[in-house]
Write a structure and sequence with these properties.
single chain; twelve-stranded antiparallel beta sheet; 3 helices; 12 strands; 40% strand
């Protein structure tokens, strides 16, 4: 009888020990899971801008389009640019086409900057000629730095919405910026204006997809003027050919 009682006590002692060990292991697993599981970051305009600014600063290449949503950009008397589109390879090589109008006539100007030299087709003859880089109305050298500057100079920004751009969900960030901050991108821009800005940044990779600039960016603009810069195929190499091989 004493032996039986002793065996029963031993059994319950072992059962209790196994239960305690099991609980300890379970608690250990929960503790480890808690340690490794990181809470999802709260999406704010600053977080989106920080990621987008970093990705812009390390950009290698991109296709781009600059459009005026109103009366165009008058860069020379009587010559109005409606659209600029092309490819930029960081830091200072690019090719793009300027679509313009003069007295109702469609004009097209092509620009190539390669190996430190800039070429542009004549506005009226279409012939290639080497020009000073300063005469080109859109300056794309160090394009990644200019995008990063634009993002970092955004003021009074807020996360406004989520929208689709090129089949990608994008955060929409709105804010303001001083026109002086865009002078190194568009030398013809006027100074001293406060501009309305919207940025579309992809949710998945935090890549800047679209920039909308509202207000008096250029001397010919008014408060309702809107300019848009779109970016596609980022970091996908393309060839830039010398017009005088």
């Amino acid at each position: 009888m004493i032996v039986r009682c002793t065996m029963i006590k031993s059994f319950w002692a072992m059962l209790l020990m196994v239960t305690l060990i099991g609980c300890a292991d379970h608690q250990s697993i929960i503790a480890k899971a808690t340690e490794t599981a990181k809470p999802e970051p709260i999406i704010t305009s600053q977080l989106v801008l920080d990621h987008a600014g970093h990705n812009a600063s390390v950009l290698e290449s991109a296709w781009f389009t600059i459009e005026d949503m109103g009366n165009g950009i008058e860069v020379f008397p009587g010559v109005v640019i409606n659209r600029v589109h092309g490819y930029v390879q960081i830091p200072n090589e690019y090719k793009f086409t300027i679509e313009a109008e003069a007295s109702g006539t469609y004009l097209e100007v092509n620009v190539v900057t390669l190996s430190g030299r800039t070429y542009m087709t004549n506005l009226f003859t279409g012939q290639w000629q080497e020009v000073s880089k300063e005469v080109v109305p859109v300056q794309l050298d160090n394009f990644h730095v200019k995008l990063d500057d634009l993002i970092n100079n955004l003021e009074e920004h807020e996360l406004e919405d989520v929208e689709m751009v090129d089949s990608e969900n994008c955060y929409v960030i709105s804010g303001t910026i001083q026109s002086d901050s865009l002078f190194h991108l568009l030398p013809v821009s006027q100074l001293g204006s406060t501009l309305r800005i919207k940025l579309w940044v992809s949710q998945e990779l935090f890549l800047l997809k679209r920039i909308q600039i509202g207000g008096r960016l250029l001397p010919t603009d008014n408060e309702t003027s809107v300019h848009t810069i779109s970016l596609t195929d980022m970091n996908k190499p393309s060839e830039i050919s010398d017009p005088f091989p």
